[in-house]
Amino acid sequence: MRKSLLSAILLAPAMALAAGSAIITLQMPVGARQLGMGEVGAALADDATAMYYNPAGLAFGPLADEWRSSYKADAKQTPFFTHMASRSKNGFFDKSELWAGTTNGILKFDGEQWVDYYSVTLQGNAKIKDAVRTYIGTERGLDEYTRVVKKFNDVKNADDESHVVEVKMPWNLVVKDTITAILYENLTEKLWVGTPKGLFRFDGKGWKTFDKELGERHVTALAKQGASLWIGTDNGLFVYRNGAFEQKGKVLPSQKINALVWSENRKELYVAVDGAGVARLTPKKSANDKDRWSLFNLEDGIMDLSPTALAVDSSGHVWATHKGGLSHFTLRKWEQVQFANNTVNDVSVDRKGALWIATDLGVWRHMPDYATASGRKAELERGSKGEDTEITKRDDEWTHYHQGNGLSTNKVWAVLPEGNDVWFSTANGMEQYKDADYQLTAFYEKLLPVLNIPDLYHLYGGMTIPLNDWGTLGVHVNFVSFGSTVVSGDLDADDLVAYNSSEIVGGISYGTRFPNDWGLGLSIKFFYSDLSSGAAAGEEEATTFGYAFDIGILKKNLIVPKLNFALVLANIGPSVYYVDKTIEDPIPLTWRLGLSYEILSMADYKWTVAFDYNREVVMDDDKGDPEPFYIACWKDLFDPDDDTNSFLQGVFNFGTEFIYSNTIALRLGYLYDRVGKRNEVDFGVGVMLSDVLQFDWATIKNVGRADGVRDGQMRFGMLFRF
User: Per residue in 324-355, is it b (16+ CB within 10 Å) or e — as a string?
Assistant: First the structure.
């Protein structure tokens, strides 16, 4: 049997995907998420499958490092977001959380947006009033609090209340004032909050107010030391341990505490004392022991006597902020870092050991040499030779972020690294530097289930690699097995020959961002097609090898916010041949147009709709040879000799995705392909187990009059972020 006939037999059911062209694997859509939405993806392009749909998606988050305006607020004169606290992921299935204190209470970031409430699920016959009683932790003012909560939940009567399952408790129901300190205790999962009127604690169910124990003191700072909580106020330093408060530091020349930080390395507490400098406390270890205090002032080398913030880095060094710069305690002496014509407002340390310094002229990221692996090695080597590490010049790293390279404004009040991200309280509100994760995706589907061919399947794997400010790089592999076909030989009908057929496409993708929310992406792909593996000796093998390019653009926030536009020209490359060099086939050059719009974006719900139009543009010249891509890409669309409706020759894809609580995703899609005789509805489900792992499933239901060879086809996908 001739190889051309063999390939036709093998590929006939699938050629509808790439009519008139070869290497159909270049056109095999991937990702169970997208395939559950009618195979849309050009304008979504927000996970590792973007390398297939639109490489320009690699230019944006969550695939690329990205600056985001998270919450807009006018804070040019005084900060709207005063302090921040986070809960880092402790386990594989945990999700990180972030709380921020504002000038009128607390806001919490749910992973998508900021919310001003805490959700409580009513149990059994419980009423809203019962939930409020637990939440506020007292009977005092219960009726008024209940009235406020009902109004917040738009509950106007008993009938409305009978339908309420989840009650939203405003964060500022109990804590209404400016937040002057906030701390999340990971061990006990409690949130501690300080205000000008005292200390509060939220345990995940309700609030406790310490007005009787501590009084209405102006809390200025909080720090955690094991089972002890250190509380700085404008009139004294206190420690809370075993349910009791004890005042400390009465020996200090000033009782106004500006900041606190606990050094786990040294088992010491550092205290920023207003008007007196930085104090160091080594707490007593037993009842018979005594607290040991030291006070560092101008004579010791600190910049001034009014430090405003403190941080301890990964090496145990202490950093104090002042109006004009930083004081750095090397554990041997104090050094000064001057910031000329600038004001330093805050300092924090990320998990890699880098310092983030908030100022009136942007943010500096400082990685001390001693905090890096090479720096620590060099210090150990110098120390082993008896050299003074302080007189050896360090090769420190400094990076400046400002209005010209990420931030929307230069004035930054506070900074908090959390996991891979960094949060900034700025003059424009809250901003986020999103440090993108690596993404690893895998996908599997058994093709054409009605044919019941066990080795007819499709596999895809891809990985994205963020490159900081340079964009994102990706690598991917797309493989299709067309199964094994047994045919009779050319001379003897009883001479049966088994042919295995497959195609593999491997590629590299890159995306980078331009101003005004434009992204540009490029993919370079190499393919190998083998239609006759296992051919008998002496027979010509039907194989080919070649390359192709994809180029795409993605515009975010087109005309209105959250409306995305995409345009891709995929599979740009030369024609191929299998056996006869005089018989060439074009690869499936395709225009891809996409739109997506986020209809709903709330704390617990996210709803997105998307549309794709795919139009393959291949045509032959007068001699029957394929036209080159730079002619076919436009001529096939506007060919005056083509009496068919070119627009309807494309594939139409519609899809929608509804996500609940960033945990469950429901998907629905529709695909119409007039040429390929496909009329299908797609269904899909996604499960996000954590910030790290996501599983997706999708299936096809044929609804047209076509043969429906894909009816019941199942797709499975996995996405891993690390």
Answer: bbbbbbeeeebeebebeebbbbbbbbbeebbb
